[in-house]
């Protein structure tokens, strides 16, 4: 409980004590009025102030206005009757403030779950200078500087380890409890905790561009993206509140007018009391508070699992996903390619590998990296010139004055080279030297161990169709698709073809939503085109955080189903609160208008509904 909430609690206790004295002591009328007034003002002065400010700023119809009018009206009726009993007016304000306090504590708990993520922001960096180690603000560390990270400290800025080895706690970013080992040459990202050894790290980004800053910006801005449900409640409240105010006014004036016209006593006091009760019941607090709180709690619960959702609108869309489309490399497979065969080169395998590795030396594609790893030494780039990378085909280059072409079937056909097809499953890199076919290299990707279980979990979560898209040849794609169990696959696709396939799937889908899951580096166009883009294994990837709507901070495919389940649980809670709050309100409004529910019942109904709705909303925190 923070300081502000403690003050409210003290005011509640003082007001309750004064109310109890006013009811217990046999005081004269004006002394009793003074004690009730002290109790009322102690608990209600801030509500009266907010109502007055709302009127001054022409924003009249809110819960503060409703509470002020209802309680002041009840006081006016008590004064008119000279009963000296202002218990109802004070109790209405007292119970309302208790409900507000309870709601504040609940919101605070939800915010603390987000704050656990916010703790990844580092306070300082140990900058290595000519004079030794200097503790500085991370924002003042230039790119390329060397920082020292001691055991127990957070890595303040993304970089590469120059010296040292350690284990890193990445739980705040990925939700993964197992430490990640790093040594010299490994990349490290900000926000991780160094567990054991001292690390010397050379920074590769400015603090504002590092992973920790991107993540915090994403989380802090998530509340700006409102869901349809939240927008509905905002519009509902804007229409509903004036409507009930005018209905209360009609309830106070029309029945007495009708009674006068019929020659009966108007009973202004009775109908005024019913109108005031109607106003108290009508407060839309439960809806206005619990719906955003449900989404906020859902976003917080997901973030603790290493699932960052950019806003409640994306959380709502995620709950309606019926089709999940996967990019193969880095999503279904590890993206760790290995050379598994060299064919048709008259026994000169090393020469073929050397030419291919040198031609691919400038590419960052995983297949190119696997060729260089298999080559076993750093390619001599001085031997290579005229490198041209042809998207979706391969590369051409001149190596030692030999024209080298390394790529797929499409590249060979484009160059008019007659090639020999490969019967083995995997990615085939055909190599042509000086326009003549020299052979091909077979490269296989490694599937993720739990991808089959993840697909089963998606079906259990209500996903009706899974699709795999890949640029691989048909044989390799078919083997992976059949082994992991996707419902449908499409192979030999260029980046533009993937967008077209997603658009075709969207047209077939109907009312459900489509999610695309990619590695976040080269899938930005498709991530943007899908109803919901999910970037997996995106820790440290700017492209993922920018293009995707949902960012999974590690490579665990099980988190896709978990994210969908979290979203569906959150939406279920939202709909429960909407139905429950509106149903109870309508029943109580009818009872209040008929005089069957008094002011006490009204405030219990209002605060009770709000407390129950807030308690229900807090369930969304548990992912």
Which helices and strands occur, and which strands form pairs?
Layout: H1 3-24, H2 29-56, H3 63-81, H4 87-118, E1 125-129, E2 132-136, E3 146-149, E4 159-163, E5 166-169, H5 171-174, E6 180-182, E7 187-188, E8 193-194, E9 199-203, H6 211-220, H7 228-261, H8 268-282, H9 285-304, E10 307-309, H10 312-318, E11 321-327, H11 328-332, E12 333-343, H12 349-359, H13 366-375, E13 384-390, E14 394-399, E15 402-407, H14 409-415, E16 427-433, E17 436-447, H15 451-460, E18 465-469, H16 474-484, E19 488-490, H17 495-509, E20 513-518, H18 524-529, E21 532-536, H19 542-547, E22 550-552, H20 558-593, H21 599-618
Parallel strand pairs: 11-18, 11-20, 18-19, 20-21, 21-22
Antiparallel strand pairs: 1-2, 1-3, 3-9, 4-7, 4-9, 5-6, 5-8, 10-22, 12-17, 13-14, 14-15, 15-16, 16-17
Helix pairs in contact: 1-2, 1-4, 2-3, 2-4, 3-4, 3-8, 4-9, 4-21, 7-8, 7-9, 8-20, 8-21, 9-20, 9-21, 10-20, 12-13, 15-20, 20-21
């Amino acid at each position: 409980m923070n300081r502000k909430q403690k003050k409210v609690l003290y005011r509640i206790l003082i007001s309750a004590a004064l109310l109890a004295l006013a009811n217990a002591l046999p005081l004269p009328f004006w002394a009793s009025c003074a004690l009730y007034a002290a109790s009322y003002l102690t608990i209600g002065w801030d509500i009266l102030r907010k109502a007055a400010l709302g009127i001054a700023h022409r924003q009249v119809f809110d819960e503060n206005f409703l509470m002020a009018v209802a309680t002041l009206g009840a006081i006016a009726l008590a004064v008119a009757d000279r009963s000296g009993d202002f218990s109802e007016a004070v109790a209405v304000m007292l119970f309302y403030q208790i409900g507000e306090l309870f709601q504040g504590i609940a919101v605070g708990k939800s915010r603390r779950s987000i704050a656990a993520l916010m703790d990844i922001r580092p306070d300082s960096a140990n900058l290595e200078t000519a004079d030794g180690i200097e503790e500085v603000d991370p924002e003042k560390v230039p790119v390329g500087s060397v920082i020292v990270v001691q055991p127990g400290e957070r890595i303040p800025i993304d970089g590469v380890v120059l010296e040292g080895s350690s284990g890193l706690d990445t739980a705040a970013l990925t939700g993964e409890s197992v430490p990640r080992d790093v040594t010299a040459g490994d990349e490290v990202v900000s926000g991780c905790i160094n567990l054991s050894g001292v690390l010397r790290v050379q920074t590769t980004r400015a603090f504002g561009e590092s992973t920790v800053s991107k993540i915090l910006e994403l989380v802090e801005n998530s509340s700006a993206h409102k869901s349809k449900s939240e927008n509905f409640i905002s519009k509902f409240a804007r229409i509903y509140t004036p409507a009930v105010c005018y209905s209360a006014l009609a309830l106070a004036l029309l029945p007495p007018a009708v009674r006068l016209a019929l020659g009966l006593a108007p009973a202004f006091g009775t109908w005024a009391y019913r109108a005031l009760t109607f106003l108290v019941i009508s407060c839309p607090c439960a809806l206005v508070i619990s719906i955003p709180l449900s989404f906020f709690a859902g976003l917080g619960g997901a973030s603790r699992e290493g699932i960052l959702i950019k806003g409640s609108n994306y959380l709502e869309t995620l709950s309606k996903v019926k089709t999940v489309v996967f990019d193969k490399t880095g999503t279904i497979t590890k993206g760790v390619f290995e050379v598994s065969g060299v064919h048709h080169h008259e026994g000169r395998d090393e020469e073929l590998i050397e030419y291919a590795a040198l031609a691919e030396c400038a590419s960052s594609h995983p297949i190119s990296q696997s060729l260089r790893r298999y080559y076993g030494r750093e390619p001599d780039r001085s031997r290579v010139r005229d490198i041209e990378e042809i998207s979706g085909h391969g590369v051409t280059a001149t190596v030692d004055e030999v024209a080298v072409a390394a790529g797929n079937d499409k590249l060979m056909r484009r160059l008019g080279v007659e090639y020999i097809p490969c019967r083995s499953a995997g990615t085939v890199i055909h190599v042509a030297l000086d326009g003549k076919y020299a052979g091909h290299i077979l490269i296989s990707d490694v599937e993720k161990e739990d991808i089959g279980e993840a697909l089963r979990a998606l079906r259990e979560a209500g996903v009706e169709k899974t699709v795999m898209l890949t640029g691989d040849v048909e044989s390799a794609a078919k083997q992976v698709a059949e082994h992991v169990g996707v419902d449908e696959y499409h192979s030999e696709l260029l980046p533009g073809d993937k967008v077209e396939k997603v658009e075709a799937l969207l047209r077939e889908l109907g009312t459900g939503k489509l999610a695309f899951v990619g590695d976040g580096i080269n899938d930005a166009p498709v991530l943007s085109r899908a109803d919901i883009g999910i970037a997996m294994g995106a820790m440290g990837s700017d492209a993922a955080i920018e293009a995707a709507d949902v960012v999974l901070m590690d490579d665990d495919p099980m988190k896709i189903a978990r994210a969908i389940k979290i979203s569906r649980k959150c939406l279920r809670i939202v709909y429960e609160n909407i139905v429950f709050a509106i149903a109870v309100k309508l029943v109580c409004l009818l009872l209040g208008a008929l005089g069957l529910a008094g002011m006490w019942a009204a405030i219990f109904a209002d605060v009770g509904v709000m407390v129950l709705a807030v308690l229900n909303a807090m369930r969304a925190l548990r992912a």
